[in-house]
Amino acid sequence: MKQDTDMNRRRFLGQAAAAAGLTVAPGVMLYEVQARPADQAATSKQRWGMLIDTSKCSTGCTDCVTACKTEHGWGSTETKSNAEQQAQWIRKVKLTDKQTGHVQSLPLMCQHCETPPCVDVCPTGASMKRADGIVLVDKHICIGCRYCMMACPYKARSFIHEPLMNQKPHAPRGMGTVESCTLCVHRVDNDGIPACVESCNAKGHKAMYFGDLHDPNSEISKRLKEFGGEQIRADLGLNTGVRYQGL
Amino acid sequence: MYLPRYIKQLVGILGVSLLLALPLTSQAGDLLPSIPKGKGDKCVEPTADMRINHMEYILHQRDDTMRRGIRTSKHSLKECIECHNAPAKDGKVARVGNKEHFCSSCHIYSAVKVDCFECHTDKPENAQYRHAVKGNH
């Protein structure tokens, strides 16, 4: 079959490109070569995911939250909203074990579920999962009913209550629509990594990893295979794209 | 109201021709839109085509980008703004709602409400942004 031949050829080219990628030591790649041309749609060959090592995530550090605010322009823009109404794409959560007093800290955002409850309940199709697993709100057809906010077990979504100005060109946001973590889809489509992961690594914390869960050779897949990764509310069976270690 | 596409285009062409012809008359005054010039040599489609069909192009690109992750720049609203809402010489950028804004200049005149800028920004991210449109890219 021609399609199979093409697939094999593509895979070979991909491996050849990976071999030609920047290598600092055997098996250690500085970045993964997986460019998708701008005119091609995202496919289910990839599933983007994130891994958070809670043992390296310190209480009080909010570098990931700050990076997200800067990247997408939320937080300081909703001046008329009260604290409960203000947007929150990512937040730091502190867990204290009452028995032992052990404290853990972790960032919580949209978990990019394989079977997202927000998509199930959306009456218009605005709440959607892209082919590569990124869960998004299509604000063009969002009617602001907020069913998805009620359905999300992670309280990951926010509703904009007031008119906004001066949005970032890559992050349109507006009154009457729901929004949440986009896994920095504009960066991912450009072969980048989410702003929170970039900031966490750049500041030397190295608590966050981003990559393709379908690629067994990606760093995130290798780490998940070796050390495992827990889902928050695994009992719901949502198969989240964001996994945690050390919970 | 449903009208065949060619009728719509004909009405559009007549409308545009009228707009172009009117400035030649002495009574034109300040009522007519003064459309700011884009930065490149030419637009991504012929000007007459863009005047009639720009909303179709943007709508199509919107779904491709949002739902499928296709990020070509040819018909993207972001690129429209980058090219057509250039900052003035004093560095000021026209905001939507002012007649100086490329989109608003016509939309205010024709009283057609445009919703894009409820969510999308109405100005380029980088005020110094410059690029030339090269043919049909």
Would you mind describing this structure in some detail?
The complex is a heterodimer of chains A (247) and B (137). In chain A, the strands form 5 sheets. Chain A has a 3-stranded mixed β-sheet with strand order 10-3-11. In chain A, 24% of the residues lie in helices and 18% in strands. Chain A has helices at 2-20, 63-72, 117-121, 147-151, 185-188, 195-202, 219-227, and strands at residues 23-25, 28-29, 48-53, 90-96, 103-109, 127-129, 135-137, 158-159, 178-179, 208-212, 242-245. Chain A has 2 domains: 1-33; 44-245, Alpha-Beta Plaits. By secondary structure, chain A is of the alpha+beta class. In chain A, strand 4 (90-96) and strand 5 (103-109) form a beta hairpin. Chain A contains 7 helices and 11 strands. The longest helix of chain A is centred in the first third of the chain and has 19 residues, at 2-20. Residues 1-10 and 16-23 of chain A have low confidence and may be disordered. In chain A, helix 2 (63-72) packs across helix 6. The radius of gyration of chain A is 19 Å and the shape is globular. Chain B has 137 residues and is mainly α. Chain B has a domain at 32-118. Helix content of chain B is 41%, strand content 0%. Chain B contains 4 helices and no strands. Chain B is globular. The chains are: A alpha+beta (247), B mainly alpha (137).
Give a nutshell description of this structure.
The complex is a heterodimer of chains A (247) and B (137). Chain A is an alpha+beta fold and 247 residues long.
Topology:
The complex is a heterodimer of chains A (247) and B (137).
Chain A: H1 2-20, E1 23-25, E2 28-29, E3 48-53, H2 63-72, E4 90-96, E5 103-109, H3 117-121, E6 127-129, E7 135-137, H4 147-151, E8 158-159, E9 178-179, H5 185-188, H6 195-202, E10 208-212, H7 219-227, E11 242-245
Helix pairs in contact in A: 2-6
Chain B: H1 5-21, H2 47-68, H3 77-84, H4 102-110
